[in-house]
Amino acid sequence: MKDIHKKSVLYIILSAVLLSTGGVLLKYVDLKPMEIAGARAIVSSIVVFAYVKKPKFTFSKAQVAGAISYSMMVIGFIAANKLTTAANAIVLQYTAPIWVAILSYFILKEKIHYYDVMSIVFIIVGMVLVFFDDVGGGNIKGDIIAIISGIFLAIVTISLRFQKDESPVETTLLGHLLTAFIGIFFLWGVHFSLTDLIGILLLGIFQLGISYILYSEAIKHVNAIEASVLMFIEPILNPVWVYLAFGEKPGSLALIGCLIVLATILVRSVIASRANRQDIIN
């Protein structure tokens, strides 16, 4: 049992590291966001389909909503990376847990706790600092798209809660296929350089395909708080790779804002996990 847990922890770490390469790989690919999204989705669809082998699509409201939101999330993340810094893009997308708390209140009728309210306040402060830093720098559009991408990620999470007795992999696969279908219309006549092709293959196979397969297998044997803490490797490493490769770094205010957002999400995850554990004991 301990060996399974150790292997699962390793899988999540590998998943987070693979996902963190998204920012730097997207910078290398000299294509428009929709062209990248479509090409990457074709590759990732093949990878995930090969893993699932016999997918079961129910086309329930939850699965369709999750697939559409997943597609919008990955497209938005690519666009954000092209318009703003990698740090801003990944950190602002990582506001998703807060949007989950808000949407859960209205959709799932779940209670919003004090730590959710406090987290929302601190995250707003962090986002305001990011926006102030980017005003006049041309990055604010990318920041807004990154936040919207985080909202779609939250909707994906909500939709998967409705499918707890089904396989969530099919929802993400459907999202990949939808993104590929949309992207095909933008790929007509596009010229791919060798660097573009290598970047697309790496993004589709490793950064998106294999990373989600590893995570879906690992989450069965790792509790939520441990998984969420380990996944923070992604938003930490993402801008590091981009800085090392391109020298890109956020401004001082944006950096402080990003750190506030990351710290808030991490602290909220720990408090929420302890609160849930206490409820189970009681």
Automatic annotation (TrEMBL):
The chain crosses the membrane at residues 9-28, 34-52, 64-80, 86-107, 114-132, 144-162, 174-191, 197-215, 227-246, 252-271. It comes from the Bacteria. This is DMT family transporter. Keywords: Membrane, Transmembrane, Transmembrane helix. It comes from Soehngenia longivitae. It holds the Pfam family EamA. InterPro entries: EamA_dom, EmrE-like. Belongs to the EamA transporter family. Residues 7-131, 141-267 form the EamA domain. One of its GO terms (cellular component) is membrane.
